[in-house]
Design brief:
The structure holds two protein chains of two kinds.
Chain A: H1 2-16, H2 18-31, H3 40-65, H4 73-88, H5 93-117, H6 122-141, E1 146-147, H7 151-158, E2 160-161, E3 164-165, H8 166-184, H9 186-196, H10 198-203, H11 208-234, E4 236-237, H12 245-256, H13 267-286, H14 291-319
Antiparallel strand pairs in A: 1-4, 2-3
Chain B: H1 2-17, H2 19-34, H3 41-66, H4 74-92, H5 94-119, H6 124-146, E1 151-152, H7 161-168, E2 170-171, E3 174-175, H8 176-194, H9 196-206, H10 208-213, H11 218-244, E4 246-247, H12 255-266, H13 277-296, H14 301-323
Antiparallel strand pairs in B: 1-4, 2-3
Helix pairs in contact in B: 2-13, 3-8, 3-11, 3-12, 3-13, 4-5, 4-6, 4-11, 5-6, 5-11, 7-11, 8-9, 9-11, 12-13, 12-14
Classes of the chains: A mainly alpha, B mainly alpha.
Chain lengths: ~325, ~325
Amino acid sequence: MNGKAIGSSLYAIVTKQKAFIAILVMLIGMLFSHTNFYSAYNLLDMLNSTSILLILAFGVTMTVVAGGCDLSIGGILVVSGIIAIKLLDVMPMGLAILIAVLFGAVVGFVNGFLVVHQRTEPFIITLGMGLLLTGVAQQLTDAHPVPAKNPAFMMIGNGDILGVPNLVLIMAVCFGLCFWLMRYTQFGRNLYAIGGDYEVALYSGINVVRTKWIAFVLCGTSAALAGVLLSSKLNTGSSIYGEMTALVVNCGVVVGGTSFAGGIGGIPQSALGLLVFGMLDNVMNMLCITSYYQVMLKGIVIVAIIWLDCFTQKRKREFV
Amino acid sequence: MQKRNSVLKVTASMLRDYLVLVMIALLVAVTAIVEPKFMSGANLVNIMRQFGPLIMVSLGMTFVIIGGFIDLSVAGTINLVAVVTISLIQPLGQVPALLVGLLIGAVCGALNSGVILSSGALTQAEALFLTFGMSTVYSALALLYSHGSTMHFWDIQKSKSIFEAIGAGRAGPLPLSFVIFLVILALLWIFQTKTTEGRAISLTGGNKTAAHLSGVNISRAIVVVYTICGFMAGVGAIVLFSRITTAAPVIGAGYETNAILSVVVGGTTLKGGKGSVLRTVMGVLLVILMSNCLDLLGVSTYLQVVVKGAILVVAIWLDNRKQA
């Protein structure tokens, strides 16, 4: 009996904290490897290279918690990065970045209109939007990478303050902001209510359309910010970076424990979920695993964790 | 007065139902006037050839979408089938290679359904991410198998007449790949409309609970739709690499989005339950005519992607309005 209790509580921990356990396993595993994994440089570098995905994930989390999802972020990411770099030539840096980020907000607004106001299926319509934006990015750049000529712009993504990379700092600010928004404001609590049960939220007097719409706008904005940071980090704008980003980020969010059923999860969970991918990349590179095997392992991790997510949903359904 | 109103209403709903046909007619008319080469025999044969891979993948995808699910793994399946099949022509001969390729496609599809069934995923979004993960795995397998290199027809010494015929052969005035498409279309149409299993798929897509309670075997329907989709992706892969006479492990990229696009533009609704393989043919025809027309008019490939994305978004939007 005792064994059964322990078993079920273990089961609960594994299913609830999948991402945390995956990270723990990797951390412990790396203790026994003879690599420089546990150096401040490597850990900071890992965080640095995951920052952009994390910023994307914070926005996506809002839409997923509200029962939607956004697959157009890959398109927004590349187009806003290209816009920022193209505009650098003709206007001051601040304005160029502002316009690029505003572009993301506009795309988010359109997504919100289609998904929330017109009630279309979010993942397929945003997939189409992502395709459209990829075409826009290719058209803008003629499918060539465009270099940035402004060294100040490059320093945003590559500089550091007291040894901490700028990207990590920006990510931390975004984290704090989104965490506060989701946890301590009426807007955030309403998002959970909408994701939990749309009808109930509607009849409780929540302005469901406006709240969910804002979530999409914020998601587009964060994706555009990530796009500007990415092109600053690489000092180029290119149409190819966003190809897999959208699906990977959405998967990461689910891996962290924010369920597609809506109403569950949050910013810290998503951060953990994306860190799984970031750390997996780092660990696999450290262990010198061939890139093809890396692709496969990532695929297997995605399938395994989403499978587990669906499976627990099923268990829950059967309990009720 | 009332009668006229109802006539108007019927016409309007007909127009909305067959919007894609109207768009095709408009596209053909405009392009034929602007660019007379469009109606030349050579161009028509060219269009028939372009039908090849996309229509095969889309026909398979139709069943998955009618069943209320979605399959993003076709890109990975195409990659895997293409590299394995082309590499087996030399050691095994062409007929076994062809059969192994088709088998791999079907197995990949069945594997997807196994993952989905065992996890108990019921929604399109869950299926989307599971099949995306599976696609990554299949693509990685294709990369590992081929070591990332592209394989060419001219490296194969043994007879590859079947593949050459699929790629460039003709049956009378029609390209052979087009004839294969017509045969498969007829078979799938009969399967969809005249068999119990075909009806079961529509019922599953319409309402899973109701279908289950009325004695439909949902699990079997899910296995069937994904296996068909995987198999058709395999057929698509073979048609594709026969046409371009090379197979790279990234050959299938983008086919999943294009197939979903064609199915939805054709009028099969993403909510499941409604749709037809014939509608998908219209959807593919529109997509291919569009890129052919834009090519003839000298529009850049990149802008074509924009137009495709816009059409997808608008088609889903209109589809949704029709439901409401």
